Amino acid sequence: MSSRVPAGTAPAGTALAGTALATAAADGDQAAFDELARLHRRELHVHCYRMLASFDDAEDAVQEALLRAWRGRSGLSGGGPEYRAWLYRIATNVCLDMLRARSRQATTLTSFADVPWLQPYPDRLLDEVAPADGQPDEVAVSRETIELAFLAALQVLPPRQRAALIFRDVLGWPASETAALLETTVAGANSAVQRARSMLRAQLPGQRTDWRAVRPTAAERQILKQFIDAHERYDPEAIASILATDIRVTMPPYPRVFDGLAGMEPLFERAFGPARDGDWLLLPAAANRMAAAGSYLRRPGDSLARPFKLDVLRIDGGVITEITTFGPASFPGLGLPPVHPGPG
Description:
The chain contains 14 helices and 6 strands. The chain has helices spanning 12-26, 30-52, 55-71, 82-102, 123-126, 148-154, 159-170, 175-182, 186-203, 218-232, 236-240, 260-263, 265-272, 331-334, and strands spanning 243-251, 254-259, 279-287, 290-298, 306-316, 319-326.
């Protein structure tokens, strides 16, 4: 994981604008606070998502964090670039409170079935915090720190270790700021990070350091196209040809795990056999910087193909090595239409 610019660092123009907004907000200017919140809402949402691995829970956390920030807006009175760190501190504390209340920590990670609260994050929303003129580098959402495997592995870490690792290794905060946020010593923060790194290495596949691309490559998009085409032709053999022999399919929040091509036979039979529930129509999508497909099902007697599921594909070495299937609740965030636009 690469280090990034410390949280208090930002281009001069951005820092000056933020300072003016922070000062006005501290004085009770609701419009200034709303603008400050707008500027940082998405990156705070991504931060909470990393902590919680749930898009919906991250939404709740950001809402609560901004309410707390408004109530404690006198904390903005110093102005200067440290107001960003102040917002992150509040958001992190909200996440820690939620994790304590819900007892959400995976005790093991044999598959994504061990993290039933795992949800996808639409790339089109991640793009709102990608590097752009006038924005600090640390808001970049690199593929290696947003992939589902990374998110799931984080859930094995105790919450405070999770927060320490995110601030040190993902956002690039210095040890002193991380320690201040966690209300511990620098030595204590460094110790938490070291323990978190060790646990994370044990959970992540060895090739994770190769996950450097910002978004799916041309080769991955081609595999996705084949995946979609084979579904719409009801051709399980064509799908099998682009799957790894040790393919794994999970369906959070459900506990079932399908391993290997032989293990997928019940899925093929249900989806493509003579007793299938209807006709498939698929659209390409992207979530967690991974190729994905939104599946629509046109059931008998219905003229419309309606949202059914989202398949997020992990592609390695030219084949699909893992499919994580979610329900259709994320379709609006992904920019997918409420019904398939194809022939009805």
